[in-house]
Specification:
alpha/beta; five-stranded parallel β-sheet; 10 helices; 5 strands; globular
Length: about 240
């Protein structure tokens, strides 16, 4: 059974963003012939994750010194087949909880550990500033390595012909988005090439001078990314079960 992990940046189990993610999962299950997706909705209150302390040890050593549930969150994302990042619009941006998660995963923005995983980003808005959320989450997801199927905002009160309460219209739009052909974006490939050049050089230096090896470089080498030139090459070499 394939697993969907939905990271929802709001605490209410009855939030508009939760409801939108549930509609997405129901549409995805329509296309799963053998069995339904197993889905886990993760909200801020589900895990004990403390604010980033700005110590930069994750970049220097590859590990965070704080003792909380951040490693559990990482495992949930790494074991997922499909990842949904969703946030309502709060004060023209993502929620503080979503930002906290991403701050604590900031080393991942450099090492792209989720290459090979597909996903989507979504937001809900009363009537404005949805692009602030969508654009930010898109940048973060691409930097994590997620290959995005689509980005989608649904209005709650006004701003569009398709409102969240119109369930059939929302599902129809999701079906249309899922049917579109997917490729690794040039933006994401350029990001991979940049980090690959940077970390490959640092790995080379680290072989001669181990004390200069950074945590980011070590993690890049452990993932084996320095052996490839493009994301598509990485995906082609993944075990069949990890290719989404």
């Amino acid at each position: 059974m394939k697993r969907i992990t939905a990271l929802i940046g709001t605490r209410s189990k009855k939030s508009n963003t939760q409801y939108l993610c549930e509609l997405i999962v129901s549409v995805m299950n329509e296309h799963e012939h053998e069995s339904d997706y197993e889905v886990e909705y993760i909200r801020p209150g589900d895990l004990d994750i403390k604010p980033c302390q700005g110590c930069s040890l994750c970049f220097r050593t590859g590990e965070c010194p704080q003792k909380d549930d951040i490693d559990m969150l990482k495992e949930k994302l790494l074991s997922a087949d499909y990842i949904i990042l969703g946030s309502p619009v709060y004060a023209a941006s993502v929620t503080s909880d979503m930002k906290l998660w991403i701050d604590r995963l900031s080393v991942w923005l450099h090492i792209m550990p989720l290459i090979g995983k597909r996903g989507a980003i979504v937001s809900t808005a009363s009537g404005n500033n949805e692009n602030s959320v969508i654009d930010y989450l898109e940048r973060m997801a691409l930097s994590f390595g997620i290959q995005l199927d689509y980005k989608y905002n649904v209005y709650v009160d006004a701003g569009s012909d398709v409102l969240l309460r119109n369930e059939d219209a929302v599902k129809k739009e999701i079906r249309t988005l899922l049917r579109k052909e997917r490729t690794v974006s040039e933006t994401q490939e350029n990001l991979f090439r940049y980090y690959n050049r940077r970390f490959s050089k640092m790995i080379e230096i680290g072989k001669k001078y181990p004390s200069l090896m950074t945590g980011e470089s070590k993690l890049w080498e452990e993932q084996g990314y320095n052996k490839y030139d493009t994301i598509n090459e990485v995906i082609a070499k993944l075990p069949k079960g990890e290719q989404q």
